Amino acid sequence: MAAVRARAVLLTGSNRGIGLELVKQLLGAPRPPAWIFATCRDPEGPRAQELRDLASKHPNVILVKLDVANPSAITDAAKIVEGKLNGMGLNLLINNAGIYTPTASLETVDAEEMIRTYKTNAVGPMLMAQAALNMLTKCQALTYGEAGILCVALHPGWVKTDMGSQEADLTVDTSVRGLLSVLPILSEKHNGTLLNWEGKAIPW
Fold first, then answer.
1. What's the whole-number average pLDDT of the chain?
2. Cα distance between residue 18 and residue 190, in whole Å
3. Strands 153-155, 92-94: pairing kind
4. Beta-carbon neighbour count of residue 79 at 10 Å?
5. Per-residue pLDDT at 201
6. 204 vs 170, higher pLDDT
7. d(CA 89, CA 7)
8. SS (H, E, C) 14-80
9. Phi, psi (rounded to 5 degrees) for 20
10. What DSSP designation does 4 have?
11. 103 pLDDT higher than 80
12. What are the tens digits of pLDDT across the range 112-122?
């Protein structure tokens, strides 16, 4: 399996589930990133204890407070990341943060909850991409096209997490190993595509 080779990685929603496992497996890579910016809404809270433990053992893991639905929080986080990178830029942005509230049907879903979910799961990644744009294009190692940015959506599968439920098909470990094996094989031809955790194309 090809390894992800990135100097600086930023992950959203990294305190549990797929995000936390991504941090763990990136750290366990033969050549782990020099910087892993692990973001979540409350890095000092009880749900981020395992992430804090990792950061205490690995100086390349930087915890950053970030709510992807809050534009000012994104701006603050970007300043922290830029300060650490000293102009070198990000290699990889993984928009993993998301929320899910089980509902019986569209008739029973609360309008406020729909808006909150849309802001986090749809608007949040776009705001993150916009904030990371300058850092991504500064990176000297990027070679994809004139813009220097490759954007691909990866489906992790149905995963045994708090959001996916324990009835899901995949373990977190299997899903993340698959996702990390797909990243190194991506090229310009994959730009704008949706792939699953095995690298197979999914129709939009």
1. 84
2. 22
3. unpaired
4. 11
5. 92
6. 170
7. 9
8. CCCHHHHHHHHHHHCCCCCCCEEEEEECCCCCHHHHHHHHHHHHCCCEEEEECCCCCHHHHHHHHHH
9. -65, -40
10. P
11. no
12. 766 777 677 66
- Structure tokens belonging to residue 80: 């922290």
CA distance 141 to 14: 25
Q: C-alpha distances in angstroms, 83 versus 37, 80, 89, 101, 143? A: 12, 5, 10, 36, 24
Give which of 16, 11, 17, 128 is closest to 61, Cα–Cα.
11
CA atoms of 159 and 203, how far apart (whole Å): 20
Dmax over CA atoms of the chain, in Å, equals 50
Q: What is the CA radius of gyration of the chain?
A: 17
Place of tokens 């804090």: 52
Q: b/e map of 20-56 (b: 16 or more CB within 10 Å)? A: bbbbbbbeeeeebbebbbbbbbebeeeebeebeebbe
